[in-house]
C-alpha cells in the first residue's frame, strides 16, 4: 500500500469548502489546484501542480475553468487560435456536471 505524501496547495481564502465525493461542484478549486485535468495538462504544459487555466471569479466567489469560460488570456499563445474549439469541448473533458471526483483530502492545519 502506498501512503499519500502531504503537500500544500494555496486556496483562495473565500473559496467554498470542498464538497463530498459525488456532490455537485461548487467551485472550491481543490481538484485543479492539486493537479491539472487532461485539458489542463495541455494548457499548463505540466502534469503536476496547479492548472494555469484555473481562474478566481470574484463576483461569484468561486474558481472557474478558464477554458470552459472562454478566457483566452489564460491559454498559451499557440492555443488561442483554437480557443472556441477547446471551449466547446471543455465541459466533457473536465467531466463538468458529473459531481466531485477529487479524492484529495484536506487538512485545515
UniProtKB/TrEMBL annotation:
Residues in 4Fe-4S ferredoxin-type domain copies: 17-47
Protein name: 4Fe-4S ferredoxin-type domain-containing protein
Protein species of origin: Sphaerotilus microaerophilus
Amino acid at each position: 500500500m502506498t501512503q499519500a505524501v502531504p503537500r500544500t496547495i494555496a486556496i483562495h481564502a473565500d473559496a467554498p469548502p470542498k464538497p463530498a465525493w459525488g456532490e455537485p461542484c461548487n467551485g472550491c478549486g481543490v481538484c485543479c489546484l492539486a493537479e491539472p485535468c487532461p485539458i489542463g495538462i495541455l494548457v499548463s504544459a505540466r502534469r503536476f501542480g496547479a492548472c494555469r487555466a484555473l481562474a478566481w471569479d470574484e463576483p461569484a466567489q468561486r474558481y472557474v475553468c478558464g477554458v470552459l469560460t472562454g478566457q483566452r488570456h489564460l491559454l498559451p499563445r499557440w492555443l488561442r487560435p483554437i480557443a472556441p474549439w477547446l471551449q466547446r469541448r471543455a465541459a466533457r473533458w473536465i467531466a463538468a456536471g458529473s459531481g466531485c471526483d477529487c479524492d484529495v483530502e484536506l487538512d485545515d492545519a
